[in-house]
Amino acid sequence: LPIVPPPLDDYKPTGTGEPPLAKAKEWVRYSNKALRETNTMPQWAGSCWYYLRFCDPHNDQRFVGKEAERYWMSGPKPGSVDLYVGGTEHAVLHLLYARFWHKVLFDLGYVSKPEPFQRLVNQGIILGEDNQKMSKSRGNIVNPDDVIDQHGADAFRCYEMFMGPLEQMKPWSMRGVEGVARFLARVWRLLMTENQAGAWELSGKVKNVEPDKAQQKMLHATIKKVTQDIESFSFNTAISQMMIFVNAFTNVDTIPVSAMRSFLGLLNPFSPHIASELWEKLNAKFSDAPGDITEQRWPIYDERLLVEDEIEIVIQINGKLRDRMKMPMLATEEELESAALSNPKIQDRIAGKTVRKVIVVPKKLINIVV
Fold first, then answer.
1. Is residue 234 a contact partner of residue 274, using CB atoms and an 8 Å limit?
2. Which of 1, 142, 195, 368 is deepest in the core (most CB within 10 A)?
3. From CA 290, how far away is CA 282, in angstroms rounded?
4. From 3.60.60.20, 3.10.20.590, 1.50.40.10, 3.40.50.150, which CATH number describes the 310-369 domain?
């Protein structure tokens, strides 16, 4: 309110349709010719245009300056705010009122765009482990502090994004939290090792070498997947791809530091604490990317490195699977046949036997008939 309201002993409804302020008779009578307005604006009046005030919060002349509004709300699309994320209950109440207020301001010439929000995303409700809406009466409320105390903030944050599609209702699962915590532990052990004194130190496998062809392909596939999934709010599948990446690098003899730099950049929005800690561990030994992880550019993938130039070929003997091998996509039938017959496992099985026929199904299999 623009003025201090009067003290009242009774704020109960009047029963006449008048608001409680109408009970302050002397305060209501402003003068012999004027009465104070007793119907006050609800809190919606403020929350309907707060996004505009964010553009120019220190302006004491207007709710938002013309230049500031055009700078922050500019763009080719009719909506002002690029993205609005809120619960479904906002769709009927807050968003309806905000749109009404914004259109009034647009008609009066105070804002430059006819719509307040360009895109709306309604996140789903997180249910209790019993698949019911969380409430004290049901006793199924999950206290975030308890989860963080037990598994850490990164696991809590990461699990919320791993639960499923953002817009769907999803039941909470402590087993799911534990699974994500194990994934983050694998990330830690990928780069760190425990010495004889029980202290963690950077693994000797991490070296300043170029990734091999398979590692490059996995890295750039992960960069592409995570980048696109973040843009589409598919956080759960982005985390799944990072799990695949960790599995691919877990048992290798050498871990390229450049690949780990890119991976930690991808992981950082999901698990910022462990990503930042591991980044500092890398910086203590390598000087290839100085500065904090938050100062780095987002990794960029190379589409050329994702082209499938090899294919897995099944090798059969008399119709039974005996081995698999990688071959170039453009390999001829003669090259496929020669590679299959020279395969050590196949040579052991056909030794002393006569090869009567070799059937080649391009890009699929080779069947050796003996």
1. no
2. 368
3. 10
4. 3.10.20.590
pLDDT 10s digits, 114-147: 999 999 888 888 999 999 988 888 889 999 999 9
8 A C-beta contact, residue 235 and residue 225: no
Q: Cα–Cα distance between 46 and 41 in angstroms, integer?
A: 9
Angstrom distance (rounded) from CA 130 to CA 108: 51
Contact 261, 183 (CB under 8 A): no
Q: How far apart are CA 158 and CA 177, in angstroms?
A: 9
pLDDT 10s digits, 200-212? 999 999 999 999 9
Spatial neighbors of 17 by CB under 8 A, at least 6 apart, are none
What does the pLDDT look like over 8-42, one tens digit per residue? 888 888 788 888 888 888 899 989 999 988 876 66
Q: What is the pLDDT of residues 251-283, one digit of tens each?
A: 999 999 999 999 999 999 999 999 999 999 999
**Are 175 and 151 within 8 A, CB to CB?**
no
Burial-class residue 27 by CB neighbours within 10 Å (0-12, 13-18, 19+): middle
SS3 of residue 237 by DSSP: helix
The pTM score is 0.73
Amino acid at 17: G
Question: Is domain 126-307 classified as CATH 1.10.730.10?
Answer: yes
Q: The tokens of 245 are what?
A: 């990446």
Encoding tokens for residue 267? 């992981």
- Domain(s) of CATH 3.10.20.590: residues in the chain: 310-369
Instruction: Evaluate whether 213 touches 260 at the Cβ level (below 8 Å).
Output: no
Query: Among candidates 178, 186, 174, 163, which has minimal Cα distance to 242?
Result: 186
